[in-house]
Amino acid sequence: QVQLVESGGGLVQAGGSLRLSCAASGSTNSPNAMGWYRQAPGNQRELVATATSGSSTNYADSVKGRFTISRDNAKKTVYLQMNSLKPEDTAVYYCNARIPLGIFEYEYWGQGTQVTVSS
Q1: Contact status, residue 95 vs residue 115, Cβ threshold 8 Å
Q2: Measuring CA to CA, which residue among 45, 23, 34 is closest to residue 100?
Q3: pLDDT at residue number 50
Q4: What angle do CA 64, 57, 71 make, to 5 degrees?
Q5: Which residues make Cβ contacts (< 8 Å) with residue 54, sequence separation at least 6?
Q6: Which of 33, 29, 25 lies closest to 50, judged by CA?
Q7: C or N terminus of the chain, fewer CB within 10 Å?
Q8: What whole-number distance in Å separates Cα of residue 94 and Cα of residue 49?
């Protein structure tokens, strides 16, 4: 049973920083891609950043230059360093992983961690 365990959310003032972590367990295969999505109340879940096993990264325009995604493939862990946080970054942040199994690829989600940025 694959599980994604997130940590690092919390309350921070505008301009502050937080670091999210997400560790994948229960699979012998390294994820093809890991990333972060977020969902604010009343909004759809949106992409924040993703990173492939080959270290290719992709960011939402709204976080470029402020957030940095990184991976430790040996630990099957993905991190999201969030700097210069804004109140509009307030959301539940979800870890996502796409893990291969044979010829298939399965998608998994973490339980979500709350990030609240006060003005």
Answers
A1: no
A2: 34
A3: 97
A4: 110
A5: none
A6: 33
A7: N
A8: 11
What is the model's pLDDT at position 83?
Answer: 98
pLDDT value at residue 112: 96
* Amino acid present at 37: Y
Per-residue pLDDT of the chain (119 residues; tens, 9 = 90+): 899 999 999 999 999 999 999 999 888 888 889 999 999 999 999 999 999 988 899 999 999 999 999 999 999 999 999 999 999 999 999 999 999 988 999 999 999 999 999 99
pLDDT value of residue 54: 84
Cα gap 45→58, rounded to integer Å: 16
Reduce the secondary structure of the chain to three states and give it as a string.
Answer: CCEEEEECCEEEECCCCEEEEEEEECCCCCCCEEEEEEECCCCCCEEEEEEECCCCEEECHHHCCCEEEEEEHHHCEEEEEECCCCHHHCEEEEEEEEEEECCEEEEEECCCEEEEEEC
